[in-house]
Design goal:
Largest interface: A-B, 29 and 31 residues
CATH superfamily of chain A: DsrEFH-like
Strand content of chain A: 15-25%
CATH class of chain A: Alpha Beta
Mean pLDDT of chain A: 91
Shape of chain A: globular
Structural class of chain A: alpha/beta
Oligomer: homotrimer
Number of helices of chain A: 6
Largest sheet of chain A: 5 strands, parallel
Helix content of chain A: 25-40%
CATH topology of chain A: Hypothetical Protein Ychn, Chain: A
Low-confidence stretches of chain A: none
Order of helices and strands of chain A: EHEHHHEHEHE
Radius of gyration of chain A: 16 Å
Number of domains of chain A: 1
Chain lengths: 160, 160, 160
Amino acid sequence: MEKEKKLSLILFSGDYDKAMAALILANSARELNMKVSIFFAFWGLCLIRDPEKMSLEDKTVYEKMLGMTAPKGPEDLPLSRMNMAGIGKAMLKQMMEDQDAPNLSAFLKGAQKKGVSFYICKLSLEIMGFTLEEMIPDVKIMTAKDYLQDALEADIELFI
Amino acid sequence: MEKEKKLSLILFSGDYDKAMAALILANSARELNMKVSIFFAFWGLCLIRDPEKMSLEDKTVYEKMLGMTAPKGPEDLPLSRMNMAGIGKAMLKQMMEDQDAPNLSAFLKGAQKKGVSFYICKLSLEIMGFTLEEMIPDVKIMTAKDYLQDALEADIELFI
Amino acid sequence: MEKEKKLSLILFSGDYDKAMAALILANSARELNMKVSIFFAFWGLCLIRDPEKMSLEDKTVYEKMLGMTAPKGPEDLPLSRMNMAGIGKAMLKQMMEDQDAPNLSAFLKGAQKKGVSFYICKLSLEIMGFTLEEMIPDVKIMTAKDYLQDALEADIELFI
């Protein structure tokens, strides 16, 4: 029997369109019965913030500022280009709806339901001052070394 | 005999400099007799738009707007940074000319002539409202699953 | 005995945060006894410019302009987002200091000390008008073909 194939993604970017690309690849890979890991780092953390669980407790001034200005969850992410203060994004979302394409939140929920493993970069979490409690459920903390060991088992590795 | 090596690229970005990086890697890989696939997704579609084949027929208002404002073909792409309303790009293009480096259109034609396989992301095409007829010739439509199966055969996979 | 594992990175981006991601991965891989190559291309060259070795000799007007406006060394790089004319970056650097995380220059020196191989893209160097003498020591020039042959030996390849 052939060894199970595996896809390993780092989602570094906090852009709506790039997050969508990552989740479409992840979901498609699961439909092909591949194993899938997403390692959320830096701005990628914004995608898995739970908008209803923001906390300002035990944070420095800078951590509070970042927590308040950085995007809060999937639908709050900007486009990587032509965002035009949100007009471009609203347009894109409408165009997706016209094509009956699900939105980013649906892709995100789908990924977890389909069994994509979500990992969060330990150092990014610390530097940005977020806590695991402010993130969506079922996300595990991983160091860069853990990521590398997980990626070494993969057949496709991408940095998005 | 050793198995043929293969390079698999996703070009997600619509930046002049990133598209150039992708095409230089693709052309160099062909010169090493590697197989090469480029999967154009999202903004990457702008690179393979044929500027003379734009159509507004059967498009929604948003699709028309996007079609008119998004870059039309290789020489219309902006730089990923220091674009400065086109001044930075004009400067870079002049510097490339001073070094006798070919421009992006030449790299693009070279890639197709050298046998690089061009694939376009089905979902991106639908969401952005472009049609295959508006693209340069010899581009095939592929789903995300097709991409993954193609990438599984590759030795190097990059997301650009 | 198992074959040594290898990580191959292209650093195309000239952003502070992306350069940090690249160096954290590179340093972590070395700590796992993996071989590591970083191929600096385009804006990535800004990271390895030696701020004290800038030269204007034998340069065209455009090369001088680019040399003066592009970031000079690690601490001069902007953030990929929320840079806000440097305020965002200053904030991030303070937050890193609060967590006792080293800054980008320290990660860069650490990488060379740990034995990460630094390669510079020949064509990028020529187009941007930089010389090897303006870069930090122990960087070798490589063509795109050399990069591909190096990456073919790697287990993980990422474009950052």
